[in-house]
């Protein structure tokens, strides 16, 4: 089990977060003593749920005491690139016996260390050595639309996180935007945020809260969709200047205007729920649109015709 967010995705289909947590608990409640459950040691809710299984428990996380612990996390840069373009994340992995360095290319954010640690824990169940598991994750690359770094027009960088969005995932993406510097000193950090869907009664609060966070890490905020206006409200309440906020109803309209707004050296985070089709913005702003089927999500004919 990886994470239980305070406002879980798809919560509008349940009576509330607690019912979502209870449903997920059923995944491990019925397991016997011969089974193994792998839990995120840093998530208090998950560790509490772990008390209700008879299975053997392995844990992972950044906290001391996890069976597989990550430490010394950081973003490393491309050595051959004078602009210092980020290439991926690095961290150390420690178990009860050993400690080895790990790298994941074209992945960004400490949250990406968690699935790597979970995979390493799974490998240990099947007898894999720690160093062998780390070597395997070093060749992993996140799928399109999952915080992939893409070169944009006008010498910009795009953090393409357009596959989907939820409060916890957006908070992690904004943290990455905070961590990565623009490719030039004059560059700005631009958060392009689309609606987060399926949040039910939590919709307004969640958007406002994330708008507050966006205000702290970005120079320009662009919102896309009717719900995304609450990003703007949260940002303004946090002291963000109205003249640095742009609002759009559709991704197509946002793409039109962003072509005019962006300047050389900017870095953009583009993220929204699947229904907002935020990849259309990435397609318009990427430096090599001929590679869209390779680099972007939702590029098959079914999606292209929607």
Structure description:
The protein has 306 residues and is α/β, with parallel strands linked by helices. It has three domains: 11-61, no CATH class; 68-137, no CATH class; 148-304, Protein-Tyrosine Phosphatase, Chain A (Alpha-Beta Complex). Helix content is 34%, strand content 22%. The protein is built from eleven helices and eleven strands. Helix 6 crosses helix 7 (229-237) and helix 8 runs parallel beside helix 9. The chain starts with 16 loop residues before the first helix and ends with a helix. The model has no long low-confidence stretch (mean pLDDT 94).
* The named CATH superfamily of the largest domain: Mur ligase, C-terminal domain
Structural class by secondary-structure content: alpha/beta
Please tell me the total number of domains: 3
CATH fold-level name of the largest domain: Protein-Tyrosine Phosphatase, Chain A
SSE string? HEHEEEEHHEEHEHEHEHEHHH
User: Mean pLDDT across all residues, rounded?
Assistant: 94
With strands numbered from the N-terminus, the spatial order across the biggest sheet is: 6-7-11-8-9-10
Q: Note poorly predicted spans.
A: none
Short description:
The chain is α/β, with parallel strands linked by helices. 34% of the residues lie in helices and 22% in strands.
Please give the structural blueprint:
Elements: H1 17-29, E1 36-40, H2 44-49, E2 56-61, E3 68-77, E4 86-94, E5 99-105, H3 113-125, H4 130-137, E6 148-152, E7 156-161, H5 167-179, E8 189-194, H6 203-217, E9 220-224, H7 229-237, E10 245-248, H8 251-261, E11 267-271, H9 279-285, H10 292-295, H11 301-304
Parallel strand pairs: 1-2, 2-3, 7-11, 8-9, 8-11, 9-10
Antiparallel strand pairs: 3-4, 4-5, 6-7
Helix pairs in contact: 3-4, 5-6, 6-7, 8-9
